[in-house]
Amino acid sequence: MVHHILSGPSKCDGIVHREHHELVVSLSTGWYSGGSLCGRFIRIRSFSGRTVDAKVVGECNSTGCRRLDKPPCGNNVIEASEEVFEALELKRFHGPQPVEWSVV
User: Fold this and answer.
1) Where does this protein reside within or beyond the cell (predicted)?
2) Of 4, 40, 68, 79, which has the fewest Cβ atoms less than 10 A away?
3) Residue from 103, 102, 65, 58 nearest 81 by CA
4) What does the alpha-carbon distance between residue 68 and residue 56 come to, in Å, rounded to a whole number?
5) What is the H or E stretch that residue 24 is in?
6) Distance between CA 23 and CA 38 in Å, rounded?
């Protein structure tokens, strides 16, 4: 599932990527795997067939809140920048949306 929630400095490099209009994602804790994919690109495919390559910049914490106003994300979730949603032609206000992904 992909969510549109990227905020604050990324865990990989400390940069607030939403201000840079980049194709970036954060992976849920299990997929983040201790940062082993930091800086690497993943290919995301929506079920409409659109694909985009996005850079892994952080962790979508599945085990607890990073901030008081943000609940933990679920397992097997990608948080994505608005640019990723646009490239995949996903509607970001329609909640989590199913996608497939692989490391490029």
Assistant:
1) Secreted
2) 68
3) 58
4) 24
5) strand 24-28
6) 14
* Two structure tokens written together for 79: 């948080």
Q: Which two tokens stand for residue 15?
A: 């940069």
- The 3-state secondary structure of 41-102 reads EEEEEECCCCEEEEEEEEEECCCCCCECCECCCCCCCEEECHHHHHHHCCCCCCCCECEEEE
Q: Which two tokens stand for residue 61?
A: 């914490």
Which pLDDT does position 16 carry in this prediction? 80
**Whether the model pTM is above 0.70:** yes
Residue showing tokens 């692989």: 102
What pLDDT, on the 0 to 100 scale, is given for residue 19? 56
Q: How far apart are CA 16 and CA 90, in angstroms?
A: 22
